[in-house]
Amino acid sequence: MVKTAKAIAVTVQEMVTKSTTNPDELGILANQLTNDYGQLAQEAKPAALTAENEEIGSHIKRRVQELGHGCAALVTKAGALQCSPSDAYTKKELIESARKVSEKVSHVLAALQAGNRGTQACITAASAVSGIIADLDTTIMFATAGTLNRENSETFADHR
Fold first, then answer.
1. What is the CB neighbour count within 10 angstroms for residue 76?
2. Which is the CATH superfamily of the domain at 1-116?
3. Among candidates 117, 109, 124, which has minimal Cα distance to 51?
4. What pLDDT, on a 0 to 100 scale, did the predictor assign at position 38?
5. Residue 155 confidence (pLDDT)
6. What is the 8-class DSSP label of residue 148?
7. From CA 113, how far away is CA 107, in angstroms rounded?
8. For residue 120, what pLDDT is reported?
9. Which pTM value belongs to this model?
10. What residue ranges of the chain have pLDDT lower than 70?
């Protein structure tokens, strides 16, 4: 989902560039933006359902919806600019819409990050536990081989 959100940001930036260099290509980019947003919306459903709590899930949904409204406005501005490529006011509106979409992408990413805190904590804890288990396995291996035996007659097997 993060990858798709970043793809949207890249497409938006390309739209800003093409608005001044080649407005004819805005239709292709608007189509790409629409496809990317559709994919993001599909990916957001399971992300919202598996979020840490219901509040974070609804926050993710709300941010994705806001991004959708921003994308729709940007596509509309791109269409208007294609109709009149020399209109400076329409270019300015497209650039402003693009800025808002970029801002909304960052809000979506922030909402996803908030939803991942619990997951990241579990991953970190699992990694720490795996490290401890590996250390214990190594210690058991050395103890079984007799390298950790005391100088008296007791062995690891006696204490096991």
1. 14
2. Talin, central domain (1.20.1420.10)
3. 117
4. 95
5. 64
6. T
7. 10
8. 58
9. 0.71
10. 115-124, 145-160
